[in-house]
Design goal:
The structure is a homodimer of 193-residue chains.
Chain A (H helix, E strand, L loop, with lengths): L1 H9 L6 H8 L4 E4 L4 E3 L7 E7 L1 E8 L2 E9 L3 E2 L2 H5 L6 E4 L3 E7 H10 L1 H26 L3 H11 L1 H6 L2 H7 L4 H16 L1
The first copy, chain A, binds a DNA duplex (30 and 30 nucleotides) through helix 9.
Chain lengths: 193, 193
DNA sequence: TTCATTTCTTAACTTAAGTGAACGATTTTA
DNA sequence: TAAAATCGTTCACTTAAGTTAAGAAATGAA
């Protein structure tokens, strides 16, 4: 399981055995059962997550309704906004499936960054990449209809449609669960012609 | 005008005179007339932008139609995805107004980063902040209606509504220009009651 | 297993966005 | 300056998403 983490890191920097051991000594690995809440709205957590196995999501509660806005699966990293901007979290984070995560707090990161400067660089490159990717995803969302977004998701993350409840997918697509049901029926109808 | 750049940088790191001079010697400043295209779809540019004065936008051309997805105004930084992922640009960048920009290519950044390590850190912190902000903006977009988005924009960036053409604003809000006109009329109607 | 809860789908109705067209008003450019 | 192009708004019509409600299916807990 550790190897998954080091495989990921090796895409950005190459680590010596010493460096790997320094990371392992931090004891980052943590299993989390389906339904576990990792972060609640209003909290000022310092923890960042990396998904080794499973699936976690961020969601808002607006007018008593859950709105899921992101899913993180294998090899995805999530640093909540509250870690960055030091304001109470606007959203919840919870486990969609039984998962294995690494959890690191920002103190650890400061320590590792100062001990191994190559980490600073890795974090910079990683967040630049994630930002560019997030912008493209946002652009695609803005420029397409719910139906196009669904078909797009079917192409890009077909696993999500299998492993995630429909009502969570719906808000992820920016629509209501009923509209997602209808939209899927419409697509099936078309493909039958 | 330079001071605006240094004011911005000082939010992240403090620079010595030497460091400031090293930056000035790069000759980054560039005025750009309204309508100037800074980047075309398909290009593999290395240039990043920082807006000192004016406004620039990114837009796609889909089915012959322009879809504006982002505006960058005073003190905003823009690194196009092609600089990060080394793939041909998916979008255009052009000036909405006469503007004064700094333009830096990634070679310069590599050079500055190795000469002054504190730059590495600034870039990491900046892109982490921008990522967190982008995610929140995306979340707000997903969880609200076109009308709510417009009202939200009116709160957060009232200047944009004045300085930017309506049809560009419309795609920024994820709708057609006619719908934006109608939506504004609807809001005005309500406020008259 | 059974009961309760949650989830998904369907349907009828409402509301708002998309579409195509028309019209001045403004801006561009020849 | 005159003609052409662009821009913003309005309208009528179409399409699709939101809303409310109901019922079937799946899931979870006692």
């Amino acid at each position: 399981m550790q190897n998954l983490l080091f495989d990921f890191i090796s895409k950005y920097v190459s680590l010596t055995e010493d460096e790997k051991n320094a990371i392992l000594s931090l004891n980052l690995f943590r299993p989390a059962k389906k339904g576990t809440t990792l972060l609640k709205k209003g909290q000022l957590s310092q923890d960042s997550y990396f998904v080794l196995k499973g699936c976690i999501r961020t969601y808002y509660v607006l007018d008593g309704e859950e709105k899921t806005t992101a899913f993180y699966t294998e090899m995805d990293a999530l640093t909540p906004h509250c870690v960055i901007d030091k304001t109470p979290s606007k959203y919840f984070i919870s486990c969609v499936e039984d998962s294995i995560l690494t959890v690191s707090n920002s103190d650890m990161e400061v320590e590792i960054n100062s001990k191994f400067p190559k980490f600073e660089k890795m974090c910079r490159v990683l967040s630049e990449e994630l930002l560019a990717k997030e912008q493209i995803d946002f652009d695609e969302f803005k420029t397409s209809s719910p139906e196009q977004r669904y078909l797009n998701l079917l192409q890009k993350r077909p696993d999500l449609i299998q492993r995630v409840p429909q009502h969570q997918l719906a808000s992820y697509l920016g629509i209501k669960p009923q509209s997602l049901s209808r939209l899927r029926a419409r697509i099936l109808e078309k493909s039958r012609e």
